[in-house]
Amino acid sequence: MESMRDINRIMEREIAKGSCPLKLEHIEFGDYSYQKIASSDKMNEVLSYLLRIGAFSQYVGKTIINNVYMDMKGKNPVFKRTKSAIERNDIFNSIKRYTRKLKPEYNGDVYLETVRCYFDIPQENLEKCRYTYQGNETYAFVMSDKYIMALYTHCLAARKEVAMQDIQVEGFTEKEYGMVRLANVRNVLFQALLFDNVKIHGNRIYADLYTIYY
């Protein structure tokens, strides 16, 4: 596995080639972070939303190709971007098969975790990313595959670091704190970092990292 130093070198090379210099600043938990998935139907609904398929295909925009999704190849998870709804539907079916093998009971053993990943970018670069889509002003961050996967690696590393810290979030239950610490988490059923729904408030930029735990 590449070290974070190697990952950072890859990012610098990709910036030199033209990738937008978006960099992870920190991650945050909040009252939005945990949602119980209480049935297989709800699980399918959550997957459909994250993959922007079925009833949620209306959310597909130009920047969906920047999203990073977990897929299963045999017994091993792989993480990748997709170019089409066909690929995202294939991931949906792959994760459904994987989930069926693990046989969750949906009695409080399956949760969706949402972590906000905050990014930093020089203001002059941010202005170059502004554009109008369907009449609304938004931003598009042009990044190579290597750069996006490197950002994803940074997000995962930050999430693992938080598990070793004593963070405090108002309103969290002991079970939720356990999930923050990754205690009693047996499996990751699915994970996605969604760059097609980047939020910008003032100078704060964030995208959501979603993980379904069992």
Provide the fold topology:
Elements: H1 4-17, E1 23-28, E2 34-36, H2 40-51, E3 68-73, E4 76-80, H3 85-102, E5 111-120, H4 123-128, E6 130-133, E7 136-139, H5 145-162, H6 174-180, E8 188-201, E9 204-213
Antiparallel strand pairs: 1-5, 2-5, 3-4, 3-8, 5-9, 6-7, 8-9
Helix pairs in contact: 1-5, 2-3
Describe this structure in words.
- By secondary structure, the protein is α+β, with helices and mostly antiparallel strands.
- It has one domain.
- 35% of the residues lie in helices and 29% in strands.
- The protein contains six helices and nine strands, in the order αββαββαβαββααββ.
- Strands 1, 2, 3, 4, 5, 8 and 9 form a seven-stranded antiparallel beta sheet that branches.
- Helix 2 packs antiparallel against helix 3.
- The longest helix has 18 residues.
- It is globular and about 50 Å long.
- The mean pLDDT is 93.
